[in-house]
């Protein structure tokens, strides 16, 4: 009972922030993302067997017995319940990007875990069902089931356009801080929903924003897309800062990147910045602008860049990690 799956990370243009249901990660709002490519992916092998006396988690060659294992074990419990299999499992997982880069891998991680564990258990699930399961591991993971541009609303995600639709689009991840985030998005979301007064306004505006982002992608209107992406990132981080006590994910380097993107856009819009729950920036741009943008970003002290195209959804491999 062993299977291996690979899933890529994704970057949200309109972000999921807030849960209607804490236990199953039902979101307060719809979100839309671009699935990234192999440069930001997770490969996971899961084996269920009576030879394991407890669940085992090996992540990037390191054995974990902390909260990461608890989260994986809780997810495996859901899979065991669904399949009727009671065995413990060994999970071996590797990221394609260097460890210690501070990149959150819960999206690619739980998408790969959902796919590998359901295949290992012989469950024949549709992508839709897989997205519903991956969501229960980590909300944003449900969008990584599909390639290209993906909308997540409530229980499931659906593909809006595939990865070949806009092949010139690029994401440049600018890593400015290699530490793991100090406040989990899970906790920060909760604080925002409970205490931010800006958050209510954000929720009211989001349906229109999703509509505009879909229209910009559908017509490959980069300028409009870039403006929507930056406004959305600003709006999210304004809400996060508006919490009591205040949370701030961006640091000085993040603000330097924002200023740099504004400068690069002074003649016409060639790039958009967006930030998740951390200081590292994602720069969305077009292929033709990548060399110039990278050159400018590398002038900032100590940054590391990972470039990515619109990427594929989950796939399976016979090259197991255990
Ligand atoms: C800012 O999916 O990591 O990246 O459901 O608690 O695991 P949990 O949260 P997670 O949150 C992602 C937040 C975000 C926005 C997004 O990707 O949509």
Give the tags.
322 residues; Alpha-Beta Plaits; alpha+beta; 36% helix; 2 domains; 16 strands; globular; four-stranded antiparallel beta sheet; binds ligand DP6; six-stranded mixed beta sheet; Ribosomal Protein S5, domain 2
Chain-wise SSE layout:
Elements lengths: L1 E7 L1 E5 L4 E3 L4 E2 L3 E5 L5 E9 L6 E4 L2 E3 L2 H17 L4 E8 L10 H15 L6 H11 L11 E5 L2 E6 L7 E7 L9 H11 L2 H21 L3 H20 L10 H13 L6 E5 L5 E6 L3 H9 L5 E5 L6 E3 L5
Parallel strand pairs: 7-9
Antiparallel strand pairs: 1-6, 1-16, 2-5, 3-4, 5-10, 6-9, 7-8, 10-11, 12-14, 12-15, 13-14
The protein binds ligand DP6.
Can you give me a brief rundown of this structure?
This protein is an alpha+beta fold and 322 residues long. Helix content is 36%, strand content 26%.
Structural write-up:
By secondary structure, the protein is α+β, with helices and mostly antiparallel strands. It has 2 domains: 2-163, Ribosomal Protein S5, domain 2, CATH 3.30.230; 169-308, Alpha-Beta Plaits, CATH 3.30.70.890. The chain contains 8 helices and 16 strands. Helix 2 (106-120) packs across helix 3. The relative contact order is 0.20. Ligand DP6 binds next to helix 4. Residues 12, 15-16, 25, 31, 106, 138-140, 185-186, 276-277 line the site of ligand DP6.
What is the third-level CATH name, the topology of the largest domain? Ribosomal Protein S5, domain 2
Count of separate DSSP helical elements: 8
Name the structural class: alpha+beta
Radius of gyration: 19 Å
Q: Give the SSE order as H and E letters.
A: EEEEEEEEHEHHEEEHHHHEEHEE
Residue-averaged pLDDT: 96
Low-confidence stretches at least 5 residues in length (pLDDT < 50)?
none
